[in-house]
Amino acid sequence: MDFLIIYCHPYEKSFNHAILESVKSNLAHKHKSFKVIDLYQEQFNPIYDKEELRLFHTGKTHDLLVTKYLDYLREASAIIFITPLWWNSVPAMLKGFIDKVMKEGKGLSHTVSKTGIHGELTNIKHTYVLTTSTSPTFYVKLFLGNGIKRIFVNKTLKQLGMQDRHWIHFGGVTNSTQHQRIAYLTKINHYNFL
């Protein structure tokens, strides 16, 4: 598998869904193989229960989707996240995906040593995070601390071993014009995902 797409939005008529369709069209046109994890459609449960937490340090799970998703992550050479920003961060569904799927252990997503976390997902050579927000992009970057890039992209995903990380944002989606949205989708449809 060339690409793994992790899609996190519950509404099939959202702008995020249009972005997903543009990404899929782009990859298909370039004859890239890909799989899509649609967290809402697949009814992924992002909540840690007691049993899941008990199994964490063993690298095991009792959630079959966690096993499937981790296998997909270890097979992919590139990953594309598509998600809105809600309250200046990723939705709880995506945060729960990171919490539950990223299992500690050699050959899983990461190992922990006395000096910190070592990412095991080094097979992922290219990482793209495509986000939208109601806040304008300059506001997200300058006044909200640029948390997605600083923490999610350049800390969390880096710690997991994901390489060549890019953040592509469409801000002000609520007040955007149809022309702006079409122009962005056209850009994504022709973007050079390596």
Automatic annotation (TrEMBL):
<dbReference type="GO" id="GO:0005829">
    <property type="term" value="C:cytosol"/>
</dbReference>
<protein>
    <submittedName>
        <fullName>Flavodoxin family protein</fullName>
    </submittedName>
</protein>
<dbReference type="GO" id="GO:0003955">
    <property type="term" value="F:NAD(P)H dehydrogenase (quinone) activity"/>
</dbReference>
<dbReference type="Pfam" id="PF02525">
    <property type="entry name" value="Flavodoxin_2"/>
</dbReference>
<dbReference type="InterPro" id="IPR051545">
    <property type="entry name" value="NAD(P)H_dehydrogenase_qn"/>
</dbReference>
<comment type="similarity">
    <text>Belongs to the NAD(P)H dehydrogenase (quinone) family.</text>
</comment>
<keyword id="KW-0560">Oxidoreductase</keyword>
<feature type="domain" description="Flavodoxin-like fold">
    <location>
        <begin position="1"/>
        <end position="180"/>
    </location>
</feature>
<dbReference type="InterPro" id="IPR003680">
    <property type="entry name" value="Flavodoxin_fold"/>
</dbReference>
<dbReference type="InterPro" id="IPR029039">
    <property type="entry name" value="Flavoprotein-like_sf"/>
</dbReference>
